[in-house]
From TrEMBL:
One of its GO terms (cellular component) is voltage-gated potassium channel complex. PANTHER family: POTASSIUM VOLTAGE-GATED CHANNEL PROTEIN SHAB, VOLTAGE-GATED POTASSIUM CHANNEL. It is found in: Membrane. InterPro entries: Ion_trans_dom, VG_K_chnl, Volt_channel_dom_sf. This is Ion transporter. The chain crosses the membrane at residues 25-44, 50-71, 78-99, 137-157, 169-188, 194-214. One of its GO terms (biological process) is action potential. Residues 30-209 form the Ion transport domain. It comes from Salipiger pallidus. GO terms for molecular function: voltage-gated potassium channel activity. Keywords: Ion channel, Ion transport, Membrane, Potassium, Potassium channel, Potassium transport, Transmembrane, Transmembrane helix, Transport, Voltage-gated channel. It is a multi-pass membrane protein. It comes from the Bacteria.
Length: 257
């Protein structure tokens, strides 16, 4: 790849221009469309149209992956990142029908694209003061959402076809939500040792993430400012002195009361 093209890719993926911002928001919108496609196609049988759209999604994700790999200075570190692994799995899931129709079960694993939501949070924090002020709430909500959809995908991938209770993605999502909230209606249960293991993970990890979201929702709003004396990072919005060490603080505000 020529130096000119590498410079263009770096500007689009890492730059701070309006064009770069629009490009990255387009990529984030594409991730949302991908997940919507996952949910919708779980209700319909595989056909030629779905396969064509599959290949189109896979090609776009592959191009995005190759572009980011090309501009990455440490490619080995890049390849072991969770988001990168999610992309590799997504590419395999979209292109699976080209290799073998029997690999179609991989399609549901494209829900791992939800890991890209963390990139959305980074961009929103940089662009909008509202998200910077409430980032703990949004991060907790994103953590819970990503967990729900990844576990739903895992439930669907491991139970669809062998468990009559899991007929589509909505059934898997319904089970994940009821298990996470410990509602446990009992109308849908997972079969086999793997199913029971997944259920335990959903209940333990899911409840933890749910309680974390509730905690940040109902506690007083804090701002992030590192105290130069004791390094305490969270303070009241109108704090003048650090509660920990008493150091005078100079927290920047945007003039809001």
């Amino acid at each position: 790849m020529t130096q000119g093209r590498l410079a263009l890719l770096r500007e689009l993926y890492q730059g701070d221009s309006h064009r770069a911002h629009r490009f990255r928001y387009w990529l984030l919108g594409f991730d949302v469309i991908t997940i919507v496609f996952v949910v919708v196609t779980s209700f319909i049988d595989m056909n030629d149209i779905v396969q064509i759209v599959d290949l189109a999604f896979g090609a776009i994700i592959l191009l995005d992956f190759l572009a980011r790999l090309a501009i990455e200075p440490n490619r080995m570190k890049f390849l072991i990142r969770p988001v990168t692994i999610a992309d590799i799995v997504s590419i395999a899931s979209f292109l699976a029908p080209l290799a073998d129709e029997g690999l179609g079960f991989l399609r549901v694993l494209r829900t791992l694209r939800f890991l890209h939501t963390y990139q959305l949070m980074k961009r929103l924090r940089a662009d909008f003061p509202f998200f910077r002020q409430h980032q703990d709430v949004f991060v907790a909500a994103i953590n819970l959402m990503v967990f729900i959809f990844v576990m739903t995908g895992l439930v669907y991938a491991t139970q669809h076809g062998i468990n009559p209770d899991i007929g589509n993605y909505a059934d898997a999502l319904y089970f994940t939500i009821t298990a996470l909230t410990t509602t446990g209606f009992g109308d849908i249960t997972l079969t086999g040792p793997l199913g029971k293991t997944i259920s335990v993970i959903v209940m333990i990890a899911g409840v933890t993430l749910f309680l974390r979201l509730a905690q940040v929702l109902f506690r007083p709003i804090k701002v992030r400012y590192t105290c130069p004396e004791c390094a305490l990072s969270l303070h009241d919005q109108d704090a003048v002195h650090c509660k920990h060490c008493g150091k005078t603080l100079r927290i920047e505000t945007e003039g809001q009361t």
